[in-house]
C-alpha cells in the first residue's frame, strides 16, 4: 500500500503491529476516512424503490476504471476483489476510492496464482474454471458486474455456489464457445455444457438505458479475458462523455470530483491522440 498514491485509492496514513493475549501478531492499518461504500449507497436507493441516478453510475464506474488503470499499468498489481463493498465514496463530493488490498497481488507471467479468489458474484469465469494463469482482466470483469448491479438495482449474476455462478453467467451470456473456454482454461475444452442462447442486453436491463451503457457492460463481460476492454480503454468510452462536458454538475449543484488530474506516470506511453480523448480541453 506504500506504493499506491492515487486520488481514487484509499490512502495509508500509518501502520503498527500489536499482539493478542495468545501472542498472535497483528498488522494494523490506519487508512484515510471515507464515510460511505458504493454498496450502501446503492442499497439506500433500493430501499426507496429507485434506481441509482445514471450520473452516479458514470462517476463510480469511471473512477474505478481510472484507479485500475493506475494499479494495473503503473504499479503492476491486480486487486482481485473488486466489489461494491470495497469501493468507498464520499456522499457529498462523490469522489470514489478503492480499498481492501488484502487479496491484491503482482501477477507475474508464468507464475501460478490461486483461482479461489474474488467474491462470488464478481468472480470472472476463468477463475470459476480454475485458471491459475489469469491476468488483470479479472478486475475488469468484476467492474462490469459492479456497473451492471448499479444499473439493475441487484447483482447481475447472483450464484449460490461456484458452479451456480457459472450457470448464472451462462443464462445471460449464453454457452461459451470452445474457443472461449480455451481462453479461460484449456483443460475444459472437451467438457459438455448445456447449449443456451445469449440473452440480449436490452432485455437484461429492460429499463430504457442509453446504448453506450449496454455497450460498455458488454465490453467488460466477455468470456475471453483478452477481449475485455482494458481499464484505460474503458475511461475513454462514450458512456463517460457527459463527465467530460464542462457544464456537467452533480445533482446537488456541486462541481464533479477531480476526474482528469492525471499524473505523467498515468499517461506514460499513451499516444497523444488518446490523451486528447481522455482529458477534455477545459481540464488541460
Automatic annotation (TrEMBL):
Keyword flag Iron-sulfur: no
Domain Protein kinase, first and last residues per copy: 1-240
GO molecular function, one term: protein serine/threonine kinase activity
InterPro entries cross-referenced by the UniProt entry: GSK-3, Kinase-like_dom_sf, Prot_kinase_dom, Ser/Thr_kinase_AS, STKc_GSK3
SMART domains named among the record's database cross-references: S_TKc
EC number, UniProt record: 2.7.11.1
Entry-linked Pfam families: Pkinase
Coiled-coil boundaries: none
UniProt KW keywords: ATP-binding, Kinase, Nucleotide-binding, Serine/threonine-protein kinase, Transferase
Catalysis performed (reactions): L-threonyl-[protein] + ATP = O-phospho-L-threonyl-[protein] + ADP + H(+); L-seryl-[protein] + ATP = O-phospho-L-seryl-[protein] + ADP + H(+)
CC per GO annotation: cytoplasm; nucleus
Enzyme class: transferase
Protein family: Belongs to the protein kinase superfamily. CMGC Ser/Thr protein kinase family. GSK-3 subfamily.
Protein's name according to its UniProt entry: non-specific serine/threonine protein kinase
Amino acid at each position: 500500500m506504500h506504493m499506491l498514491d492515487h486520488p481514487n485509492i484509499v490512502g495509508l496514513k500509518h501502520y503498527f503491529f500489536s499482539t493478542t493475549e495468545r501472542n498472535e501478531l497483528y498488522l494494523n492499518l490506519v487508512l484515510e476516512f471515507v464515510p460511505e461504500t458504493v454498496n450502501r449507497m446503492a442499497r439506500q436507493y433500493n430501499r426507496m424503490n429507485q434506481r441509482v441516478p445514471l450520473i452516479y453510475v458514470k462517476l463510480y464506474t469511471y473512477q474505478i476504471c481510472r484507479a485500475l488503470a493506475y494499479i494495473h499499468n503503473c504499479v503492476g498489481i491486480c486487486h482481485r476483489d473488486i466489489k461494491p463493498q470495497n469501493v468507498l465514496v464520499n456522499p457529498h463530493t462523490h469522489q470514489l476510492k478503492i480499498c481492501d488490498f488484502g487479496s491484491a497481488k503482482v501477477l507475474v507471467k508464468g507464475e501460478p496464482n490461486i483461482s479461489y479468489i474474488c467474491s462470488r458474484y464478481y468472480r470472472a469465469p476463468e477463475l470459476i474454471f480454475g485458471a491459475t494463469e489469469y491476468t488483470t482482466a479479472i478486475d475488469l470483469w468484476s467492474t462490469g458486474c459492479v456497473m451492471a448491479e448499479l444499473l439493475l438495482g441487484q447483482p447481475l449474476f447472483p450464484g449460490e455456489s461456484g458452479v451456480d455462478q457459472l450457470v448464472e453467467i451462462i443464462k445471460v451470456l449464453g454457452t461459451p464457445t470452445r474457443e472461449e473456454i480455451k481462453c479461460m482454461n484449456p483443460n475444459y475444452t472437451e467438457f459438455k455444457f448445456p447449449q443456451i442462447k445469449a440473452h440480449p442486453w436490452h432485455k437484461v436491463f429492460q429499463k430504457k438505458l442509453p446504448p453506450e451503457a449496454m455497450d460498455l457492460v458488454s465490453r467488460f463481460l466477455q468470456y475471453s479475458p483478452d477481449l475485455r476492454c482494458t481499464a484505460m480503454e474503458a475511461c475513454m468510452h462514450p458512456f463517460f462523455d457527459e463527465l467530460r462536458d464542462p457544464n456537467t454538475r452533480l445533482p446537488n449543484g456541486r462541481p464533479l470530483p477531480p476526474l482528469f488530474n492525471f499524473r505523467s506516470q498515468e499517461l506514460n506511453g499513451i499516444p497523444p491522440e488518446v490523451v486528447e480523448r481522455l482529458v477534455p480541453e477545459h481540464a488541460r
